[in-house]
Amino acid sequence: MKIKIRKCAGILMLWIMCIFVLTGCEQNQKKQAVTEKKTSEEEASIDVFAMDTYMTLKAYGKNAKSVLEDAKAEIQRLDQLWSVGNKKSEIYQLNQKKKLKVSEETLNLIEYGKRMNQVTGKAFDITIYPLMDLWGFTTEKYKVPTDEEINEIRENQMGTQYIKINKKSRVVTLEHGIEIDLGGIAKGYTSQKIAELMEKEGVKHGVISLGGNVQSIGTKTDGSRWKVGIQSPDDSMEMVGAYQSKGESVITSGAYERYFEKNGTVYHHILDPSTGKPSRKNLTSVTIISKNGTLADTLSTSLFIMGRDKAIQFWRNHSKEFQMILVDQNDKIYISQGIQKYFTSDYNYTVVKDK
Q: How confident is the model at residue 12, as a pLDDT?
């Protein structure tokens, strides 16, 4: 894999193949079979722009088209609820007012983010928003801040301990001038929620791509698994491999996804809370596979920040909850043993054992 740096709209590519087979004996039976098949495997797709990314939803099943309209509305609702830039959103209002009664959904996600800060050894931090803003990743007015500017924010405007939650009243208070951003978990939560909505309304086969976060529903209509290509961090047109997914979230974080270059140095958007700077550990791409989309979204960033060795150890401690595909700075690929059966690659890769 040649090392190239490109800005790309998505971090996963998806191949969707469907084969429909209709059988019958007599003419009227054929008609009935065709009609029933068409009804039960109705195909529909829809595109949505939300959460600052392009999304594609595809569904097969009864009322697939109307289901996707409901899914689109739900995505837009959640985007309006958590957008840091929408003045009407709960997160924007909370960041401005520092104390706000929020919806139960927002409360639960904030609480989850706070808990995962401890689980990941503070690698995941929803209070990192002021740092993202300082570097210009929120406005695209990029700059390389001084150490003094970085440390001022790290010491005085960060820390999940300053998020106070009253579950009974649903009031959240932000102390020490901190601001939060749920962007690191919102898409994973959304894809999981949309999958649940679609399944509840009768969709048995489908795929949701939220700006590269891929959530599959069941299998393809022919019973085979969905094939999700894992993009190379070095070349937007190349794959490091492919994973066959069934009812799972497949979420990747990479240094190449959002970045800017200054004086010959590339600065990517995955900031390490312990330094306030782009993570310079030895990973260039982390893919997390899990039944829990919120967890997958959280850990794709967290393990990237941890670096290869700590990421592998973290997986060993939580191997029942997720699987992973890591690419390090030397283009070496590591996969956890739980997905060995469903991962293929043209490159050599190392299978990480749980013991």
A: 43
- For residue 117, give its domain range: 90-183
Query: Structure tokens of 125?
Result: 């931090």
Predicted pLDDT at 234? 74
Neighbours of 187 (CB within 10 A): 29
% residues pLDDT > 90 (the chain): 79
Helix (H) / strand (E) element for 203: namely strand 203-210
* Selection from 11, 31, 67 nearest residue 304 by Cα: 11
* Bridge partner list, 209: 56, 214
User: Residue range 41-46: average pLDDT?
Assistant: 88
State the chain's mean pLDDT as an integer. Answer: 88
The 8-class DSSP code of residue 247 comes to S
d(CA 64, CA 126): 35
State the CATH number of the domain containing residue 281: 3.10.520.10
Examine the domain organization and report whether 59 and 94 are in the same domain. Answer: no
Burial-class residue 195 by CB neighbours within 10 Å (0-12, 13-18, 19+).
buried
Which residue stretches of the chain are H helix?
27-40, 64-82, 90-97, 104-119, 129-135, 147-156, 183-200, 293-306, 308-317
Do 281 and 305 form a contact (C-beta atoms < 8 A)? Answer: yes
Cβ neighbours, 10 Å, residue 348: 7
Maximum C-alpha span of the chain = 80
Q: Is the residue at 3 inside a domain?
A: no
Q: Residue 164's domain is classified under what CATH number?
A: 1.10.3980.10
Residue 10 has pLDDT above 50, yes or no: no
Q: At 354, list the tokens.
A: 């749980």
Is there a contact between 150 and 131 (Cβ–Cβ < 8 Å)?
yes
The whole-model pTM stands at 0.87
Rounded-to-integer distance, Cα 205 and Cα 19, Å:
13
Which residues are within 8 A (CB) of 125 and not within 5 positions of it... i.e. 6 or more apart? 117, 158, 160, 273
Query: Residue 6 falls within a domain, yes or no?
Result: no
